[in-house]
């Protein structure tokens, strides 16, 4: 009985406890704040590596264990709750991070990955990530995206299936379903490289670019983010729609959506001094509109709706509506004003309606077309060549509706070696007819 009483006393004083050998150690709390105690550590430098450097890390909770990785015993630090790693001027954060080795040579980031380059403000986010200290690389997956702001304050967001960033060179490689969202343009491609030091994004072949009312494509793309400049090379094409006001046959105005196509060996798009978007096409440059085709060595389109088109060198302008071909070396088209200006070796050719056969040719120093009035004013050393007539003058006006031309300024006609002069000559370039008025006389 006495023995039983002793056992009972021991039981009451020292009750049995069930010990769970797999339970994690409890979080440590600060006696002053009752908040989880923060842990900080340092990834030691590896003496075997000349380029080695310390890496700092920290979190609200720390678990340490030894594992066998590829046949080697490795110490792993599991960081939880506001976990972070500081790699030089880059801070990597996540809800949970596993740090490999005392020198922190590798780390795996899980849930809510947030990486910030503190030197230039570039930010990366993803679901999971992998960090390699000695290659200075970070790889992120699960809806990864990269955000940066250029010197003008515009923000660009890039997304892909996987993003690999070289922390030392600041070169980022984007893989699979790449989308570059810029305030002025969106780029779609399979692969891309962002060279941050050069503010340059390059893509794999055949990217697609979309902006308001514009579609661009080409084999090679370079996007200079700080300048908002786009360079497309090889098999380049730009499609653009614009709403324009036209007059019908009754003179009533109506709005019409017009498609303009620009293509050439190279297309460059950038803002000009007035911050207006300018597109320059070089090498086999071509502009196609409903009734107009422009070919030149270089063509420049100004404005989001190409309201101004400038062409330089070896220009050919085919007006299919009026069966006219203009050529020269300096050409400007102001669409909103319905005005064309052509100079430097300027020439106008009249074509047959059912073919491209030339009926008459006019050369002069300057051509001005007022498309709303359907008139062309021609100035300076005018020379007309048709099937049976040669004419000269200093000033002329071509009326498109009547298909007639009024030649003035000492006008004269050469027929079979005879010079006929008059105050005015009315010339019909389609059939070569002419009418001389006001003081007609024969003379050299």
From TrEMBL:
<dbReference type="Pfam" id="PF03968">
    <property type="entry name" value="LptD_N"/>
</dbReference>
<dbReference type="InterPro" id="IPR050218">
    <property type="entry name" value="LptD"/>
</dbReference>
<protein>
    <recommendedName>
        <fullName>Organic solvent tolerance-like N-terminal domain-containing protein</fullName>
    </recommendedName>
</protein>
<dbReference type="GO" id="GO:1990351">
    <property type="term" value="C:transporter complex"/>
</dbReference>
<keyword id="KW-0472">Membrane</keyword>
<dbReference type="InterPro" id="IPR005653">
    <property type="entry name" value="OstA-like_N"/>
</dbReference>
<keyword id="KW-0998">Cell outer membrane</keyword>
<dbReference type="GO" id="GO:0009279">
    <property type="term" value="C:cell outer membrane"/>
</dbReference>
<feature type="domain" description="Organic solvent tolerance-like N-terminal">
    <location>
        <begin position="273"/>
        <end position="429"/>
    </location>
</feature>
